[in-house]
Amino acid sequence: MASESTPQQLLATALADGLAQIEASDSTDALKAVLTGLTGKKGSLVAIRSSLGKVDDLEARKALGQLVNEAMTTLEEASVVRSRALRANEFAAQIEQERVDLTELAMSAQASRRRGRMHLVTQATERLEDVFVGLGFQIAEGPEVETDFYNFEALNMPPSHPARSMWDTLFIESDIEGSVVLRTHTSPVQIRVMKEWPPPIYAIMPGRVFRKETPDATHMPVFHQIEGLVIDRGITFADLAGTIESFTKAFFGPGFTSRLRPSYFPFTEPSAEFDIRRPDGSWIELGGCGMVHPHVLRAGGLDPNEWSGFAFGFGIDRMAKERHGVEDLRDMYSDDVRFTEQFS
Amino acid sequence: MKILLSILREMADIPSDPEAVATALNSLGLAVETMDVVGTPVPGVVAARINRMEKHPDAAKVTRCFVDAGDGEERHVWCGATNMQPGDIVPLATLGTKMPNGMEISRRGILGIDSEGMLCSEVELGLSEESDGLLILPSDSPLGVSPFDILGIEHDVLFDLDLTRNRADCWGHLGIARDLAAYFNVELRGPRVQVGERGAPVAHAVTISAPNNCGLFSVASVSGVVVGSSPRWVAARLAHLGMRSINNVVDASNIVMLETNQPNHAYDASVVSSFDVRLARAGETLTTLDGQVRDLHAEDLLVCNAATGVGVGLAGVMGDLHSEITENTSTLAFEAAWFSPDPVRFTAIRHGLRSEASVRFERGTDPEAWNLAAERFVTILRETCPDVVLHDGTSVERTSSCPQPIVVTASVVRIEKLLGIAIPNDRISQILNSIGFVTSIDGDVITSVVPTWRPDCSQDVDIIEEVARHFGYDNIGKTVPNSTVHGRLSNMQTRRRALRRVLVGLGLDEAMPSPFLAPGDLAIIGLPEDNVLRIANPLVADESILRTSLRPGLLRSLRYNQSHRAPRVGLWEIGHVYPKSNEQLPDETEQLAIVVAGASVEVALEQWNALCDALSVGAQLDQSRVPAGLHATRSASLTRGKKVVGVVGEIDPVVLDALGIEGPVSLLEVDLTTVLNEEPKPVQARDINRFPSSDIDLAFVVPESVTASTIQRALRSAAGKRLVSIDLFDVYRGKGLPENSRSLAFRLRLQEAGGTLTDALIAEVQQACVAAAEKAGASIRG
User: Fold this and answer.
1) Distances (CA, A) of B782 to B698, B701, B770
2) Secondary structure string (H, E, C) spanning B644-658
3) What is the pLDDT of residues B63-91, one digit of tens each?
4) Do B578 and A144 touch (CB under 8 A)?
5) Contact B576 A173 (CB under 8 A)
6) Which of B184, B334, B514, B760 has its Cα between 20 and 30 A from that of B212?
7) Residue B693 has what pLDDT?
8) Choosing among B358, B462, B478, B504, which should be mutated to test the A contact, i.e. which has the most A CBs within 10 A?
């Protein structure tokens, strides 16, 4: 050795050198290597520590050992600081590298797959069902191809009853001419429910109905109605008016009210039309209703002296049409996705 | 039904305010469709005489008229009409007049020559909806006076009512006036009747040979008739009510019908004086007033001249053309009858002849209105025939089919129980009496004689409805039933809603094509057509059969979208199909179908898996049973034992080609009547096995003839109860494999219930699996 440096000098040099190396390392990997070079098994500081055995003076050896430990701690601390800075730089670089244009991604996300759409009529039907379920009703369903009995006769329209002409009926070819029809209204389900469900009955009956009608902006040969039927002990006309009122407020909103006007249906008496009054004072003519006719109760197997009830019905398609401002009903049945996809 | 306020107000002192009347009509159930003010005078229009007419050489289509409006000044007016001649008195709209259509009369003429006004037609004056030239006023009309005054045209209000089927009585003004009089609590006078002194009795022989069809036939004798034109008010009212003025006799007859709802007919008594009402004979014909020769049916009813046996009218529908009165007629046989509703309706339908008379008879007329009708008829005729006489001894023949007044009893308590409000007894009887139901109440029992003009009322609810109607629906109140029933969706309905949300979540749009198909629509997609229902009276031939499958409708919608630049749509429908059955009604079931354009069977399988997961259902894929109309090597039936619950695959390319659809198109069909009605039991929780699991990967070479499910089944059963899951994680076809084979790689996860799996056990399972797979036709890949 050219010059005899003291262990203290060696230590100071190694420490300064180490700190410089830590500061100069430009990646966490490089830093790790530097640290190993200093404090690892073959590191320079470990070498200095090993050389302490040559110092004879116990006190001096202790002091030196203390200095080496301090130097090692200093280097480790410096490396932690450096490492933190390097990690921060690396994350910043990664983040910068991963930059995307979210508007671009949003566009391709939109293009890839939108949610499907339920038909407007289905949407309207579910909304109506929900309101009626909330009012305590259950939901009944029935066949769309019906017998003359259920569609007419049981509804107080015996064969050749003139009121049958109120509906333009589509008939099915059958052995007995006219005995099978495409149901002209959802009312036949009333009879089926009376026969199958034990009273009391609080039921709504949504479904598809058919008329021999040329399609135009407001009429379709195939459309949808919802029917309501309540059968219980002591049911009154006032209960009918009150139920229509509850439905009006629940479905349309608290600012809406309803009224009943006398009308005629073979299956109800007294019969009424019901109108909804908008908050602006204008009226919507919605549907028909009335007290179930005793003949109909009997056809359903119920004793009119024990049970009374009311029924009501209206079109579903029109609800959808008016809610969404659809000008022409035919558009609603076009299955054109350009029309459908508007309504999420 | 058109109704004039003026006629109603002659019958009862109801308010003159049309709005008040409309409100009353609506709340009585006589719905007002439209309400129009008619016959409003047009200020500035005066009667003027045409002094002379000239043609202009350059204007062939118009005439120059020089008119005198009574102020001594001759005005020049251009006129496009052709029905006038010099000397005629016509309406002149003077300069500045505002016409009913909004036009203001200005000086502007043609060819540089001004027009000092306009000569008017009835249409231009708002008096009718059609006319064929100028309105020619009576030759003695004073010049300069409003034609409205000259013609006695009444300012009137016309209501168009949408009458319900039960209110037969409201086809006459009288029935409506009766309801309104009760509503406004005023006296009902009815039509004004003033017949003067009756003439000596004259009888007409009447025979009713068809007693089931004719309940009453009355003939009144009327003499001193001079046939001429009607008073202006008669013509004006007829015009407002949609009928044309013919002559004073026919017009009076029509007014009587419109007022009293009693159709009637006036015959020339010198031609027809005795009557036989009988059914038509085979081969008989009659020429109705509209000029058409009608081949009569054995169920048509005829009014015949008893002297000749020849028909003079198709009873209740229309008169005979050759039996009309003439200008020489001076004595009349005035018929007012009651015909049974149904036979009249069937005759009207058979002959496609719906007349003012038939619509009334088929609803049911009042069998006791015949005398009022005759008296009102003569009252009107007296205005134009001062010497007209109604003779005593009107012949009235009745049969057993003539409706008799009926007595209905009802209960006061029942009214309260049905309406939900207690109405005092005196109010009940006041209401019923005010509309002609002669009523008394004894304790709880209401006894009411139903008036003959109300054929719709025959039982207690009819009486209750009348009470409710006149009590006012608005006065009944609103209550809510005290229900013990709880609202909810059924299991099936809940599952259907869940299914809809799955479908929407898969990005599929709901379609709702028509359930009507054309013959051939099923055949073209490879489905049978021998089990379809046919519509007996379809709107169009293209919509004459009912679908047995949702596929034709959805494919049509798919094609529609493809042809409108949406090549890759995915559509679903949940709807009914109606295949024929051995019962009266078809085997109607609810089905789901999904089609996706540009998608292969994998997409349909993904959809099926999503459905199975959401609804906790399942089925086997049976590729040996290829569903009709599907791609033969890329489709399968969804089966449970022998039962087929659906199909999955791709539409047969041959079908797509025939329909002009760009393929491939995936298809999934599921029988929802089966699948939605299932109610899966709630899954019971199992403890999580916390012991370590081990995976073994096995790759096999499998001939194409052996299905993946066969190998999977073999592995599953060989691995036994230690198997947690088995996944097909790799499929490879190509180099290094024998022809017509592929490599299928399965990963089996194994776990022991009570401890850690030993290597020995894993090896044992692996050996068993390999053996089982090889037995099933696979060979382990080296």
Assistant:
1) 10, 9, 12
2) EEEEEEEECHHHHHH
3) 999 999 988 889 999 998 989 999 999 99
4) yes
5) no
6) B334
7) 92
8) B478
Q: Kindly report the CATH number assigned to the domain that includes residue B431.
A: 3.30.56.10
Average pLDDT, chain A: 91
Using CB atoms, pick whichever of B465, B486, B508 lies closest to residue A269: B465
B503 contacts A270? CB cut-off 8 A: no
The percent of residues above 90 in pLDDT, for chain B, comes to: 81
User: How close does chain A come to B286, measured CA to CA in Å?
Assistant: 26
| Residues in chain A closer than 8 A to B478 (CB atoms) | 238, 241-242, 245
B393 shares a domain with B426: no
**Quick check: A112 pLDDT over 70?**
no
pLDDT of A57 higher than 60? yes
Q: In angstroms, what separates the C-alpha of B301 from chain A's closest C-alpha?
A: 19
Q: A180 contacts in B (CB within 8 Å)?
A: 533, 584-585
B413 to chain A, closest Cα gap in Å? 12
Band (pLDDT 50/70/90 cuts) for residue B626 is confident
Domain coverage including residue B29: 2-39+157-184
Crossing angle of helices B173-184 and B18-27, rounded to 10°: 90
Phi, psi at residue B770, to the nearest 5°? -60, -45
Report the residue of B461, B462, B506, B540 to disrupt the A interface, i.e. the one with the largest count of A CBs within 10 Å. B461
Q: Can you point out the beta strands (E) in B642-762?
A: 643-650, 665-671, 694-703, 723-732, 741-750
ipTM of the complex: 0.86
Cβ–Cβ of A263/B164 closer than 8 Å? yes
- Tell me how far apart the 2 most distant CA atoms of chain A are, in Å: 133
Contact (CB, 8 A) for A113 and B504: no
Task: Give dist(CA B250, CA B230) in Å, integer.
Answer: 9
Q: How many Å apart are CA A284 and CA A281, to the nearest integer?
A: 10
- B233 occurs within a structural domain: yes
Residue closest to A274 by CA, chosen among A300, A301, A311: A311
Q: Using CA atoms, how far apart are residues B79 and B117, in angstroms rounded to an integer?
A: 10
Within a domain: B6 = yes
User: B242 to chain A nearest CA, in Å?
Assistant: 24
Contact B569 A337 (CB under 8 A): yes
Look up the pTM and report it.
0.85
Tokens of A90: 């690396």
Kindly report the CATH number that applies to the domain delimited by A120-340: 3.30.930.10
Given A121, A238, A334, which is nearest B476 (Cβ)? A238
Is residue A224 a contact partner of residue A121, using CB atoms and an 8 Å limit? yes
In sequence order, the 6+-apart residues with CB closer than 8 A to the CB of B20 are none
Give the Cα separation of B772 and B716 in Å (integer).
Answer: 9
> Sorting pLDDT into bands at 50, 70 and 90, what band is A2?
very low
Residues B221 and B316 in one domain: yes
Q: Is pLDDT of B732 > 80?
A: yes
Alpha carbon of A204: minimum distance to chain B alpha carbons (Å):
10
Beta strands in A103-186 (DSSP E): 138-139, 145-147, 180-182
Q: Amino acid identity, residue A255? A: G
The total number of structural domains in chain B stands at: 6
